[in-house]
Amino acid sequence: MSGGVDSAVAAARAVDAGHDVVGVHLALSRMPGTLRTGSRGCCTIEDSLDARRAADLLGIPFYVWDFSERFRADVVDDFISEYAAGRTPNPCMRCNERIKFAAVLEKALALGFDAVVTGHYAHIVTDEHGNRELHRASDEAKDQSYVLGVLTTEQLAHAMFPLGTTPSKAVVRAEAAARGLTVAQKPDSHDICFIPDGDTRGWLAGRIEPEQGSIVDRAGTPVGTHDGATSFTVGQRRGLNLGVPGPDGRPRFVLEVRPRTNEVVVGPKEALAIRELAGARISWAGLDPVASGLTRVTAEGDAWAPFPCEVQVRAHADPVAATARLAPTTTPDGEPDGRATELVVEVDEPLFGVAPGQTAVLYSGTRVLGQCTIDRTVSAVPATAS
Amino acid sequence: MVVYLDHAAGSPMPASIRGAYLAALEHVGNPSSIHSAGQAARGMLEGARERIAATLGVDAVEVVLTGGGTEAVNLGVKGLFWQRQAGAAGDRAVAPDAAPDAAPARADRPRPRILMPRAEHHATLDAVEWLAAHEGAQLRWLEVDEVGALRLDDFEAALAEGAGPVDVALLTMLAANNEVGTLQPVAEAAALAAAHGVPVHVDAIAAYGQVPLAPLPAGVSAVSLSAHKLGGPVGVGALVLRRGADVVPLLHGGSQQRGRSGTMDAAGAAAFAAASDEAHAAIAERAARKAQLRDRLAAGILAALPQVELRGAAGRAAAARAAGRVAEADAWAARALPGTLHLTVPGAEGDSLLMLLDLAGFAVSTGSACQAGVPEPSHVLLAMGLHEQAARGALRVSLGPETTEADVDALLAALPDAVARATSAGLAARTPTLGR
Questions:
Q1: Where are the alpha helices (DSSP H) in B95-142?
Q2: 8 Å CB contact between B71 and B82
Q3: pLDDT at A31 over 60
Q4: CB–CB contacts below 8 A, A to B
Q5: Which chain A residue is nearest to residue B424, measuring alpha carbons?
Q6: What pLDDT does B100 receive?
Q7: Is A193 a catalytic residue?
Q8: Which of B251, B197, B375, B208 is nearest to A69 (CA)?
Q9: Residue ranges of the domains in chain A?
Q10: ipTM of this complex prediction, to 2 decimal places
Q11: What is the CATH architecture of A209-269?
Q12: Any alpha helices (H) in A302-370, and if so which ranges?
């Protein structure tokens, strides 16, 4: 129970469903800050008090569980090191993967509980064979299935999302008000909870040592300098301070961040378009596509035949039609390197602003199939074209 | 049906005290008013003050009623510190029975040093750290031993440091540790302090009404008390300020009491006096009864859960008793609060234990302070030399006057399952295995 309206109503519905419910608030920071109105973080004293009050009104016991050390290691430090490696992580996803449905769930199971209930907008469907599937919420505007795409079968087996079939957030707020919950009109949180002022760049600047380096074009020709490659994100246009326009006079965008050489690669907007993405850190939410009958293992046994799906690369992006396959990772010459198997996703129409470190979640209709962390992308525009 | 075993956090108000409180609440009038109603309220208040004073062998004028223990501690610590600085108004901060040629009567120089053991309650810790951050105080931590008692050798060493005792503002110390229940060497420390003209504030909130504190040792200038630890109301406390020891006040206003402004709570004082009378009327019998139940609990835990460590002087007593070393056990027991048992469970979080026991119907505590309900490893256990991991699995059981053998046996029956589950859940910092 974060102290927000969603988890409060989720808890209320779990109580109504007849479960034996205990409210748990996660302490994720050793320094929860001070009381302040309109706080947006998830770690503040005010949020903890709101969660406690909601549990009290629901008549359920309430406890604070301290996962600040794990949160720092698995989410905050991971966030910093991913940025330092030139990647763009999603910390909320990481928190679901490592904290809420791992550390918290594991502790709950050991203490004698059966499941973790959250206020996420997503829907778990059980098929005729008892297999659990993760689906988009009924309210597509609030759907959070993307940030739950990292959950595995085992984690899904112990997860409950009572808000998944609610038609809209307004219904949840109305229900909270009808139940007398004081958080009924509390504003939604939007920012990364450990960066309460929302200034991610400023926050990172104090944690990653910036080093001056070159801004280069796609051919590798230096076109400017920067004060630290890791403060750039793929797709970024502002803040490049190149002084002179590109050869064609058009604005230039960050195409790639190369932390190893401390280079930022820039180019025209169309060069941001990618036609393929791939990643080797893969998980399946329930039965995998082979077991689900969506594809088959190839004759060689080390790959899956291409299968149609949709791919979503950000929490609030639209899914795009794609074809996915599982294939051995290859050397630059296209030969299998024997190191891993990666999920390769070819999109039907170009995707823009996709950065390594982001998560690609595969869907089949409303169903979440699984995900991979993006390791590499293939541009839709050959480098020579610009 | 809840078995309440958290009396150290707050002891439920017995019907007798509730009756006295309700009767007192029927009185009309502000004790500072001149009219007869005010005088009647004043009479009730002063009668209560006298009864509280009597339990410590002090005069009524030496009892300053406060809005609870934290205010008393803040007044004692900050008030004495400020009084000891050059330019402070008033006379002296040293107890009257200190060595006559010790400190000069008036603060004639800065005395920035505050000596404070590492295992104090947060009311003291935070007050002193605030003085250090904002008022120029220099904090000298004093070490405690492995049962949590102040090390007198370190206190003596600290007195001799720098310019010597002359620049020490005060020593502040507990009478009994609130987490592990170990009694502190107040008389010895106060004698040392008095010999050097250093005033002593004693936080007796955990000890008052549990063990006899009268007569107060020579050299103790101020003693903090709280009513709700002995069945009185919350928000009522007192600072016993020895005659001649002055404090700079925290609150400014109507000067209703020595060193404290604010309308006096006559009914609260009456209820506090009733609770303190009840606790002191049978203090030896109550203590013996609680000690016997505590020993039963300790022996049961040692027998059923050999991995559990019992902490503090009471823990040492239990271990010695289990080994048949009676004299040693009695010696340790004499250094422990009768009703407190503190234990640590290796590999478990105290908050897991607390939750499981709570859901099973037992109200106990981890003993340490919470920030937004976040349990932190106890500074007391760390000061006693425990590693942070060992300190995380802490549980404090504190008995009250109405605790029964059946309560203790029920806890003993519930504890193994809670310990097993909490141990299997492990420490929060461990790496989870669920997920990809």
A1: 122-134
A2: no
A3: no
A4: 93
A5: A110
A6: 45
A7: yes
A8: B375
A9: 5-178, 209-269, 273-380
A10: 0.85
A11: Roll (2.30)
A12: none
